[in-house]
Amino acid sequence: MPKKYNVCVLGATGMVGREMIKVLEQRNFPVDKFLPLASERTAGQKVTFQNKEYTVKEATSESFEEMQIGLFSAGAKISAKFAPEAAKRKCIVIDNTSHFRMDPKVPLVVPEVNPEALKTHKGIIANPNCSTAQMVLALKPIYDAVGIERLVISTYQSTSGWGKEAIAEMYEQTKALLENPKAKIVPKYIFKQIAFNVVPQIDSFVDNGYTKEEMKMINETRKILGDEDIQITATCVRVPVAIGHAESVNIKTKKKISVEAVRKLLATFPTVKIVDDPSMGEYPTPIDCVGIDDTLVGRIREDISQKNGIEMWIVSDNLRRGAALNAVLIAEKMIEDSLV
Amino acid sequence: MPKKYNVCVLGATGMVGREMIKVLEQRNFPVDKFLPLASERTAGQKVTFQNKEYTVKEATSESFEEMQIGLFSAGAKISAKFAPEAAKRKCIVIDNTSHFRMDPKVPLVVPEVNPEALKTHKGIIANPNCSTAQMVLALKPIYDAVGIERLVISTYQSTSGWGKEAIAEMYEQTKALLENPKAKIVPKYIFKQIAFNVVPQIDSFVDNGYTKEEMKMINETRKILGDEDIQITATCVRVPVAIGHAESVNIKTKKKISVEAVRKLLATFPTVKIVDDPSMGEYPTPIDCVGIDDTLVGRIREDISQKNGIEMWIVSDNLRRGAALNAVLIAEKMIEDSLV
């Protein structure tokens, strides 16, 4: 009988936390004891795992005493506080927040892309930003084949990336505007009206005029691909979609690669699926990716504006692939490699 | 007393046609006789101009006999048929369809950008695609100052660009999904579900994997800026917005230009307005541009991924700036230059 592990989910009541619990269940992850945790604010709520109802407990340093794997998604501050406490108690933390991602001592991992980085772990592993995770999956086989010199990215990111309150806000605004097109909309979670609108701001601005979200995509992509020389620029935009991020990615490769060769590489890369037959009206849209593991790639074409260029359109479930699934895949890979 | 002109609007019942009539009225265009025209399908409907109701007449070649200026927006086929008939009868055609845009004998004009092209007209002047018009306005002062080598464009285009049926479709789908999140959506005008989704296809595909819309942006931008050497790539995406196109534009200039210099240039360029103060949460979104003449530019920043790069976000009312206003501005410029 395979070994089983004591697993806790910190942030169990959030969108990503709930998706983590669902993924653990769906993948039959070898869970022995299961412990859902949250901050004081939402502790006491109920969650269901393998047909059993659990009361979510408030996290304390002692919560991690008997745990072996901790999936964290309760915000950067809570990770900053509890991840070292968990690691000290031999509970390996797979952290979905941004807090440790750029820490040189913490591996930042998409298991299909840079599993080798897991070997260097010191108790904490970081899960990348959702928009980064799906993009590096589609880039990795191209990077390995011909190298990547530069990326120009524009994103179409769903409201779930900003939490369940942001989805609710989108639906509320939409209802109000359908009832009265002149309804006064006061934004609360998303920076501007998101219903029937698009908002070119995700997270706050930094000094160079980029947003934190844009800088995450730039810095995390370099760290995951292990190449600080890739030149990257990004514009991250919130769109009125519930779940599923889309990305328009313009790639300058180091050596020439044909569209056919790109298709062949992507076709065999794990958890990437090509949806790309313009003549049949086939390309992925956000609603196509909801609840599935695969990252969908379409609109693959030779960039007519530069010598070694490829254009592509990458779509993935940001809660699942970009967060919950990635965390569980990391845990599975660590078990496989006897790192737990 | 200034001279007045007999003006007809062909396609008077469509979204752009109605906006043309509104713009003629709002700008006090010197109209003597006014004649609203349409195809057989919608002739007979009523429109109002300067507080007077008109019955829209079915267009025939003879409709243009006494007309001096014809604003056309009834589809490429109707323009192909009637524009030469009108021109033959000394009615100058300002055509909003794609039919004549790339004809080397037909000037393609954004009046603030290349008014000199009007002088070569032979009776027909083409109005550019809406997404091209707003972009070249923001690019022109940069082009003149330091030259442009390459553009990487991703668009966020509203449903009104595909006609009033597409807006109605968006609202219908939205209502259906709010009532029942599992409602079966059958797309009709837009290629895929547009409510709570984004669709990376505008117009049909051509052989190189780009869409016609993308190729229009590429070819028309070169023609208007008069520079076939600018390298351009574009990904055009439909978003669930009613009116207002947004564009994420990455610019490689020939010579280095600072963000401050770009701001100064744009600040004095006609019909361009800078809305760009990240520290105050200021940047334009589609709902901000509806019904106004100005093209709004924000998120102006130095592109950290290349030596001479600028990133910007361009937002404009596609019906007004991208179509109706541009056509009327062309007519005004021709009057000013005694070309009518």
TrEMBL record, chains A, B:
<comment type="function">
    <text>Catalyzes the NADPH-dependent formation of L-aspartate-semialdehyde (L-ASA) by the reductive dephosphorylation of L-aspartyl-4-phosphate.</text>
</comment>
<dbReference type="InterPro" id="IPR012080">
    <property type="entry name" value="Asp_semialdehyde_DH"/>
</dbReference>
<comment type="subunit">
    <text>Homodimer.</text>
</comment>
<comment type="similarity">
    <text>Belongs to the aspartate-semialdehyde dehydrogenase family.</text>
</comment>
<dbReference type="InterPro" id="IPR036291">
    <property type="entry name" value="NAD(P)-bd_dom_sf"/>
</dbReference>
<dbReference type="InterPro" id="IPR000534">
    <property type="entry name" value="Semialdehyde_DH_NAD-bd"/>
</dbReference>
<dbReference type="GO" id="GO:0004073">
    <property type="term" value="F:aspartate-semialdehyde dehydrogenase activity"/>
</dbReference>
<keyword id="KW-0791">Threonine biosynthesis</keyword>
<keyword id="KW-0220">Diaminopimelate biosynthesis</keyword>
<dbReference type="GO" id="GO:0009088">
    <property type="term" value="P:threonine biosynthetic process"/>
</dbReference>
<dbReference type="GO" id="GO:0051287">
    <property type="term" value="F:NAD binding"/>
</dbReference>
<keyword id="KW-0521">NADP</keyword>
<dbReference type="InterPro" id="IPR012280">
    <property type="entry name" value="Semialdhyde_DH_dimer_dom"/>
</dbReference>
<feature type="binding site">
    <location>
        <position position="157"/>
    </location>
    <ligand>
        <name>substrate</name>
    </ligand>
</feature>
<comment type="pathway">
    <text>Amino-acid biosynthesis; L-methionine biosynthesis via de novo pathway; L-homoserine from L-aspartate: step 2/3.</text>
</comment>
<keyword id="KW-0028">Amino-acid biosynthesis</keyword>
<feature type="active site" description="Proton acceptor">
    <location>
        <position position="245"/>
    </location>
</feature>
<feature type="binding site">
    <location>
        <position position="238"/>
    </location>
    <ligand>
        <name>substrate</name>
    </ligand>
</feature>
<dbReference type="GO" id="GO:0009097">
    <property type="term" value="P:isoleucine biosynthetic process"/>
</dbReference>
<protein>
    <recommendedName>
        <fullName>Aspartate-semialdehyde dehydrogenase</fullName>
        <ecNumber>1.2.1.11</ecNumber>
    </recommendedName>
</protein>
<feature type="binding site">
    <location>
        <position position="318"/>
    </location>
    <ligand>
        <name>NADP(+)</name>
    </ligand>
</feature>
<dbReference type="InterPro" id="IPR005986">
    <property type="entry name" value="Asp_semialdehyde_DH_beta"/>
</dbReference>
<dbReference type="GO" id="GO:0019877">
    <property type="term" value="P:diaminopimelate biosynthetic process"/>
</dbReference>
<dbReference type="GO" id="GO:0009089">
    <property type="term" value="P:lysine biosynthetic process via diaminopimelate"/>
</dbReference>
<dbReference type="Pfam" id="PF02774">
    <property type="entry name" value="Semialdhyde_dhC"/>
</dbReference>
<feature type="binding site">
    <location>
        <begin position="160"/>
        <end position="161"/>
    </location>
    <ligand>
        <name>NADP(+)</name>
    </ligand>
</feature>
<feature type="binding site">
    <location>
        <position position="181"/>
    </location>
    <ligand>
        <name>NADP(+)</name>
    </ligand>
</feature>
<keyword id="KW-0560">Oxidoreductase</keyword>
<comment type="pathway">
    <text>Amino-acid biosynthesis; L-threonine biosynthesis; L-threonine from L-aspartate: step 2/5.</text>
</comment>
<dbReference type="GO" id="GO:0050661">
    <property type="term" value="F:NADP binding"/>
</dbReference>
<dbReference type="Pfam" id="PF01118">
    <property type="entry name" value="Semialdhyde_dh"/>
</dbReference>
<feature type="domain" description="Semialdehyde dehydrogenase NAD-binding">
    <location>
        <begin position="6"/>
        <end position="121"/>
    </location>
</feature>
<keyword id="KW-0486">Methionine biosynthesis</keyword>
<dbReference type="GO" id="GO:0046983">
    <property type="term" value="F:protein dimerization activity"/>
</dbReference>
<feature type="binding site">
    <location>
        <position position="101"/>
    </location>
    <ligand>
        <name>phosphate</name>
    </ligand>
</feature>
<feature type="binding site">
    <location>
        <begin position="13"/>
        <end position="16"/>
    </location>
    <ligand>
        <name>NADP(+)</name>
    </ligand>
</feature>
<dbReference type="GO" id="GO:0071266">
    <property type="term" value="P:'de novo' L-methionine biosynthetic process"/>
</dbReference>
<feature type="active site" description="Acyl-thioester intermediate">
    <location>
        <position position="130"/>
    </location>
</feature>
<keyword id="KW-0457">Lysine biosynthesis</keyword>
